Hints:
Layout lengths: L3 H6 L3 H11 L7 H13 L3 E9 L5 E3 L5 E2 L3 H9 L3 E2 L5 E8 L2 E10 L5 H13 L1 H44 L1 H18 L5 H28 L2 H6 L1 H14 L8 E7 L8 H20 L5 E8 L3 E8 L6 H5 L10 H13 L3 E6 L5 E8 L19
Parallel strand pairs: 7-8
Antiparallel strand pairs: 1-2, 1-6, 2-3, 4-5, 5-6, 8-9, 9-11, 10-11
Helix pairs in contact: 2-3, 6-7, 6-8, 6-11, 7-8, 10-11, 11-13
Amino acid sequence: MTSPLELLADRGSDLLVRIAAVACSDRELPRMAQELACLVVRSARALTFCDVYVLDEEERALEWSGPPVPLGEGDAGWVAAHGRTRPHADGRGAAVPVHGDGGVIAVVDVRSAGPAPPEDLALVTALAGLFAPVLSSCRRLRTAREREHAAERFAERAVEAQEAERSRLSREIHDGIAQRLASLGFHLSAAERALPEHHPEALAQIMMARRLCELSAAETRAAIGGLRPPVLDDLGLSAALATLAREAGDGPGPSGVIDVTVTIEGELEDELPDHVQTALYRIAQEAVGNSLRHASASCVDLLLEHSPDRVRLRVADDGTGFSVRDVLAQGGTGARPDCYGLRGMRERAELLGGRVAVKSRPGAGTIVEAVVPVPGRRRVTPGRAPGTPSPP
């Protein structure tokens, strides 16, 4: 019995060249299906029309340039359901199954102006068999892309839900605690003015209460800004990191004044999605906060590096350092209060398909590095532009 390749070889080398060109093109659906349809029409002698239907991910319908065709409906749907070639009732063509992955994965539907020549139908059958692995690869790639997009949408919704809750808390603190503290400050000022001068001890207590009230109000404002920094929405990630560094360096740390610097390297063609910017800002915020609260650092360096397919955030300090294993040990005696922050940074990056690495040892400072892929961008093989065919 003649194999599909031998049958196609009998048609001449030009056909084999066209087949190789289509098979080596970018394996994206529906483009591959359209190119296969064009190849069939160009290679046949009497066929004037061709459609390639590809089974969807749920395996319930066939996808093509028109509305989806449920399995079992029409010639193409019948062939997909039964796995056998079905000639059209008028004799002017047929629907041919493409077998792969244990079943029918596509249907090649051809038509001609008159009765379809048997040699053309044999050609279609041979091409269907030859392109079965190619279409299988295309379907797997499509499934992987759809899952990748679903993961990106989930990450976006998760970050949006977190930020919505932060915004709600920020509003409640502003409208509740902050207003109560402001009112308390007014009443303390009124009490101070109304107090007779011959009660110095009472006056001292009121003044102390005012200072505590002002301190609480300042911490409340800082908490509101930390829950949802306006600069992130207004100016983007780079400006938000600069503001974070400036605010962190304004106040003295446990060991004195802290020098916090920000460096931005590289540029992106398009701005990062909001949920990616938010996640990176939260990671930087947690890392800088750990440096201030736990590391007794005098210098903190932030680096934001843009690459075509990823973003790298690096926060390094010259603080006391720690044993990463002890801090991340669940329930261990060496666990520190900031272990939850480190786990939170890792979870944020992993939600976006990235990772966080923490390098530290006692007395040698700490480096937190987050690498997050740019949504919708794939790593490009050196020497090839995106979308160009692979070499045969």
